[in-house]
Predict the 3D structure of the following.
Amino acid sequence: MPTLRISDIAERTGEEITLKGWVANLRSSGSILFVQFRDGSGLLQAIVSKDAVGEELFQQAKTLTIESSLSLTGVVQQDDRAPGGYEMQVSALHIVQVGQEYPIGKKEHGVDFLMDHRHLWLRSPRQTAILRIRDEIIWQLRKWMKENGFVLTDTPILTPTSCEGTTTLFETDYFGEPAYLAQSGQLYLEATTAAFGRAYDFGPTFRAEKSKTRRHLTEFWMLDAEAAFVDFAGNMEIQEQMISAVVQNVLRERQSDFALLERDTSFLEKVKAPFPRLRYDDAVKKLQELGNPIKVGDDIGADEEMLLTKEYDTPFFLTHFPAAIKGFYFQPEEGNPERVLGSDLLAPEGYGEIIGGAQRIHDLALLEQKMKEYKLPVKDYQWYLDLRRYGSFPHSGFGLGLERVVAWMCGLDHVRESIPFPRLLTRLRP
Ligand code: 4AD
Ligand code: MG
């Protein structure tokens, strides 16, 4: 018989049951102890009274501390006033361990203290709400991919070459030859797309980002998706349909977590395809009108994105970037090779880029020429060029940064809370 959990007790009210978990909070009043009890699936108020459990058990119960582990037996009743909506009249209890004094208390802690105690901080209601929303986003993304014909083909993490430039590579020793942690699975995914027509991967990716911002991790999760015979416009349609469906499904499934986070979900409710499109050159004009010093040819950085997102209350695509600020594989715009068929999907409310996507170059000669311009070791990419030798096909794809989506949906002001154990420029521990 598996352990009964708080999430299952609705059908068991009025019965005597046993639950196992931890003390979330404690309050005593004479011969009664109120235990806020959590088991990871929910919260329950437990009432331990000396009359019901007897002197000996009551004295034991009085030794409980915050986060002590224990099992409780008693009859559960619904009670809307109780935290969690249920109350247990305890008839017996068994202490598994009386926890040492818990370092995370009710007083305000600084960010560094909380991050040093991330392994414990994870148990707090706010952190569990965020991680449940993260779990739901992953689930809904995978569901959407499957329902839309994308086959999961995970790509390697140890790679001999780079995908997104050489400045953010993590290098490691692979039995005497250098290897790099993957920055994106895209190039490999292009190969599996020739096998399946539509493919995706979803896994950790790595970038030695030297920037200390609220949205950069050095290890983050990316969903790359790629589709054969889909052009630049079709690629954006796939993204907007996926994001609309995922946002609406996550909102519906995790209402109570959004409420706990006090997240104003009105912007999220407006996330419905189609999303506006804004060409890079028009974005530059708009930014200049807003007083930003950007010039044509400059990259659109975090500050510029922030300004632009104020102009929209839904996600929107930034498109047709200058070729020089993008990677080697971006298909040039027809008749205007200075601009490429790439798009960034920007989330509103100041969040900015959550997805980067593009139509890929499928012409062998053009791709070879671009690789030379980008000073890439062409010989190491022969397998990638093979995709243009044996039945080359127009194709497009994108990469979604999971933590960026979690931060946006949860309304977080820093990406560090969006992943269980964040890896940042200045943080490798715990
Ligand atoms: O825009 P990026 O660099 O695109 C690629 O890597 C393509 N190869 C993806 C593809 O087309 N299959 O990264 C994709 C997304 C970004 O939009 C952003 O959401 C996220 O990955 N991202 C990061 N998230 C957290 N920390 C970082 N350091 C990130 N760098 C990128
Ligand atoms: Mg990008």
About this structure: The two ends are 35 Å apart (CA to CA).
